[in-house]
Automatic annotation (TrEMBL):
Source superkingdom: Bacteria
Domain (OmpR/PhoB-type) ranges: 96-191
DNA-binding region location: 96-191
SUPFAM superfamilies the UniProt entry points to: CheY-like
The protein's name: Response regulator transcription factor
Keyword Cell cycle among record annotations: no
Keyword DNA-binding carried by entry: yes
Domain Response regulatory: 1-87
InterPro entries, per database record: CheY-like_superfamily, OmpR/PhoB-type_DNA-bd, Sig_transdc_resp-reg_receiver, WalR-like, WH-like_DNA-bd_sf
Residue numbers of 4-aspartylphosphate PTMs: 23
Keywords from the UniProt entry: DNA-binding, Phosphoprotein, Transcription, Transcription regulation, Two-component regulatory system
Length: 192
């Protein structure tokens, strides 16, 4: 679940969740101070996202308690990689290089898929959609997160584009029930 807040006060009042992306340019306060205050009550991973790119600013951000510091503008793929790295370092992201669901096996590192021990040929996008679902096996993955992973942008993956790729993926797997649509939310890879 994603919680979006716009002010320092709201950020400090919100549940920090599993990870905080903290813009340092907040309308009612300095993000550096917010980061320090978060650190007094929580060890949640914090990634500072800011336009402040000078070395002194980066050092100040990291010393305030941020686990990483990303300077705008940045590529979504870079931000996702940094989120993964921070979550791995903190133990919140356990790598799942190989996922088996029934007779479906997805080897994320080797980028291979097998159903009933037979290789299945997928396009790059189809594999990327399946890989993000496999990495979160059993949990609902919001459409936005699927789009960010597979297309590196929420805007490039129109609703219809994603629907077409998911339909093609279901057909190729021959197990349409494995890629479940959770209406209004996203998708889940599951066996029931």
């Amino acid at each position: 679940m994603v919680t979006h807040v716009r002010t320092a006060a709201d950020a400090l009042a919100a549940d920090p969740g599993d990870l905080v992306l903290l813009d340092l340019g907040l309308p009612d306060g300095d993000g550096i101070n917010v980061c320090r205050q978060i650190r007094t009550v929580s060890d949640v991973p914090v990634i500072a996202v800011t336009a402040r790119g000078e070395a002194a600013d980066r050092v100040r951000g990291l010393r305030s308690g941020a686990d990483d510091y990303v300077v705008k503008p940045f590529a979504i793929s870079e931000l996702l990689a940094r989120i993964d790295a921070v979550l791995r370092r903190t133990g919140l992201l356990q790598p799942r290089p190989r996922v088996t669901v029934g007779d479906l096996t997805v080897d994320i590192e080797a980028r291979t898929v097998q159903v009933a021990d037979k290789p299945i040929s997928l396009t790059r996008k189809e594999f990327d959609v399946l890989a993000v679902l496999a990495a979160h096996h059993g949990r609902v993955v919001p459409r936005e997160q699927v789009a960010l992973y597979a297309w590196q942008s929420v805007f490039e993956a129109s609703s219809r584009t994603m629907d077409v790729h998911v339909a093609s993926l279901r057909a190729k797997l021959g197990r349409p029930e494995l890629v479940q649509t959770i209406r209004g939310v996203g998708y889940r890879l599951g066996s029931d």
